Amino acid sequence: MGLWLTGYAILMFKIGVILTGVLLLAAYLVLLERKLLGRFQARIGPNRAGIFGLLQPIADGIKLLAKEDVMPRGAHRRIFLFAPAVVTGTALLTFAVVPMGPDLHLGGRKIPMVVTDMNVGLLYVFAMASLSVYGVVLGGWASDSKYAMLGSIRGAAQMISYELALGLSIVPVVMLAGSLSLVDIVQAQAGRPFVLVQPLAFVIFFVSAMAESKRIPFDLPEAEAELGSGYHTEYSGMRFGMFFLGEYVQIQVLGALTAVFFLGGWRGPFLPGPLWLLAKIVLVVTAMIWIRATLPRFRYDQLMDLGWKFLIPAALINIVITGFVMVGI
Amino acid sequence: MDMTVYAVFFYIIAALIIVSAGMAITRKHMVHAVLYLVVSFLATALLFYLLGAPLLAVFQVIIYAGAIMVLFLFIVMMIRPAPAGERSLTAGRLAAAFGVCGIYVAAALVLAFMAAPEAGRPMAAAAASPFAFGFYLFDRHWLAVEMVSLLLLVALIGALHLGRAGRRNQSERKEPL
Amino acid sequence: MRKWVWIVHSLCTGFYTTLKHIFRGPATELYPEYKRPLPARSRARIILTADPDGRERCVACYLCSAACPVDCISMQAAENQQGRRYAAWFRINFGRCIYCGLCEEACPTSAIQLTPSFEHADRDIMKMVAEKADLQVNHCGKDGNYNFYDHAGVADAFRPKGGHANEAPPVNVRTNMP
Lengths: 329, 177, 178
Ligand code: SF4
Ligand code: SF4
Description:
The complex is a heterotrimer. Chain A is mostly helical. Chain A has helices spanning 2-40, 56-66, 77-94, 121-142, 146-177, 182-188, 194-197, 199-212, 224-227, 237-262, 273-294, 300-328; strands at residues 104-106, 109-111. The A-B interface holds A 76, 79, 118-120, 123-124, 126-127, 129-131, 133-134, 137-138, 141, 149, 152-153, 156-157, 160, 163, 179-180 and B 31, 35, 38, 54-55, 57-59, 61-62, 65-67, 70-71, 73-74, 77-78, 129-131. The complex binds iron/sulfur cluster (2 copies). The site of one iron/sulfur cluster has 12 residues of chain C, from helix 2.
């Protein structure tokens, strides 16, 4: 019983650390994005709250919390209230399987640096991604507003389409690692990160993951110019904040997964594992901000063409080639 | 009868499945019905996980809850079906429905017990690794897998053909690159 | 193939362009720390100027009030001992003013003028109502040497008839008799 309790306490501690870290990082990624985007556009970005604007996330948080939580008349109350939690919740849950570093040994106990090492970890990630569609679809539908509705329909179509490419692009990685567990995938990259062996898979994964997280140039579901702000047009206060937070947690998930699948996860010389993972996440996020600063939004037909006519066939061909090479060797 | 933690979880999840499935078939509002069905699928996935089939659990979430039900929701949202009016279920119809279900369940149970007499015993918590599952599937049942995949391919080509047929008459839209 | 070269090329150009801007440094001017000198004719807070002799220019003709699209100027005309019209009181509600400058254009005496000073926001809307004393200044504003009474042809205590610019002294009509 004592052993069980210790295990339980360690688990809770790990969850607490990861949740705090992820939420804090999400807040500061917003700042990073605003700062970098400012620089890309020859601006400064937020610099008033605290030195270099470092307190800006806190100010934003207080602002969002203090704002009125408006619900449109005609909205489906319970679904409307519930939808933002789906987006944030599924994104946070994904972090349960992301390995943060090598196993620790404390007082004769092996403590893995991951909340849970599932043997189907990779599929669990996809399960969470596919559930996050509900947040978008239900949020838009329950708002009882045509802009939100259009946004959520676009969101559903986009996320379902790119989930396929996302899943297929990662198959070669699974073939190389011989396991669906994220811990094993990181272990398999001890020699070289998979991005060197699978550059095409990396590109496909990155593009479709960006589409999954609905960022520019894939931000059709929240296209400001056409739809107000898409599926979360009607949300205000902290409920909007949940969507916003969810988006940035999703970006982190994307960074972490890119790191785990292609960049060697927490592996790296000199620095401890979690720091390497953090560095890689920030690297991926920076790349995404650069893309956001550069590319305009896709048109709907271009979006579908890219997904169905380019990414999916390319991913399939990549799988076949990888198979042949692996059998040949 | 000893109640392990697993057994407690099993009964909670089973109750959740039955209640949400019941809600799904009794809701008037289509979207609510779909959502209850999603809850039921998620609970089923939990049950699979509890019984030591994590792969099946994850597939249940990805495919049923994540893809098929999203498509359902998508369609329901797009076509906005008029809410069904009072469709009174008379006692006779209700009885007929329950009768059919009862017979079906009874038949399934009988068949299961006949095929594997040990099915009545409580299941020991076992875990099937994805590796073992995949090996079993493609080693023993490769023919069935191939047949199913062929069927899906035929459906895909059929859908492609139907999609093309509508567009053939229209002049090809030239896309300025 | 040409298409692909084109795609890659245009992507690279785009990413290079944005990257360049990171090193270019921001073009932002930080406002309260650095206040850009505004052009003299930019339109913000309104003043009532004085003529080169230091007397008030406004003759309370109501033209600015009539021209104002949001009706934020009000006044009452009066006449002083020297025979000049002036505004007994003059009020601009800056809470309504849209700084369009039409009052300035309408004014025949160059009295009412807009200035570049724009920092007069307030939380209390009643403080946005400016009375004549708040508006009056003792310089000529943008129009340095214009004096309406030099041209008006109105006789007063300072300029008798014929004392104005381009004006001949008054003629005794009776001496012109043939
Ligand atoms: S600037 Fe325009 S709005 Fe303001 S007082 Fe003059 S005429 Fe009226
Ligand atoms: S138009 Fe000029 S002179 Fe006439 S009332 Fe207005 S400020 Fe005075």
